[in-house]
Amino acid sequence: MLVWNRLRYVLSPQFDIYEQLAKIVRGRVADIGFGSGFGAHLYVTNAKEIVGYETDECAIRFARRAFNIPKMSFGYGDIQKGIDDAGFYFVTMIDVIEHLAHDKQSLLNIKKMLAPGGTFICSTPNRLSRYRKSEDHAREYAPKEFEAVLKMAFANVSIRDYKMEPLASQYENPLVAFCRNE
Fold first, then answer.
1. pLDDT tens digits, 72-131
2. How far apart are the C-alpha atoms of 27 and 43, rounded to whole Å?
3. Domains along the sequence of the chain with CATH
4. Which three-class secondary structure state does DSSP give residue 175?
């Protein structure tokens, strides 16, 4: 079952997002809810250090074995309770926010992790699109709802598509937000 879950992850739109973000992220990068670690490992080319945080111990063990790369580390971290680490120039959270019961508190915790001028990049499925809904989601967001919750923690929010282009339609899926820490 673990192998199938990891394969499904690699074949999902999340891979496309990580591939685009690998061209953007630099410096010290945190990946919240890294899943298999496959996406975070794409950051290796341009990032100075990648730190992955996850609540699933099985995923942590898998990522440590699969991606034993010197500038990468994977460990336990629950963003809803807060992670005691800061100074990240980028924090990414790919298709995680919809699973969090405490999304607003999580965003405030992420803001504390960012360096001044740092960027938080977050993706989520678009509630208005025709994607397959999940019972595992605590909530789902339409573009304006997603922007509104992000603006509770960040003043500068830009919603994009998976190619990192400005959103052309309210039905595009997934949604990707860039939030700057002012």
1. 999 999 999 999 999 999 999 999 999 999 999 999 999 999 999 999 999 999 998 877
2. 10
3. 2-180 (3.40.50.150)
4. strand
Cis peptide before 116 (omega within 30 of 0): no
Exposure class string for 77-107: b at 16+ Cβ within 10 A, else e: bbbeeebeeeebbbbbbbbbbbbbeebeebb
Sequence-distant (≥ 6) Cβ neighbours of residue 135 within 8 angstroms = none
Report how far residue 17's alpha carbon sits from residue 176's, in angstroms, rounded to the nearest whole number.
8
Residue 128 neighbours by CB distance under 10 Å: 18
CA angle 59, 124, 22 (to 5 degrees): 65
Phi, psi of 170 (to 5 degrees): -70, -5
Would you say how long the chain is, in residues?
182
The whole-angstrom separation of Cα 102 and Cα 17 is: 24
Q: What does the block give as tokens for 58? A: 């099985």
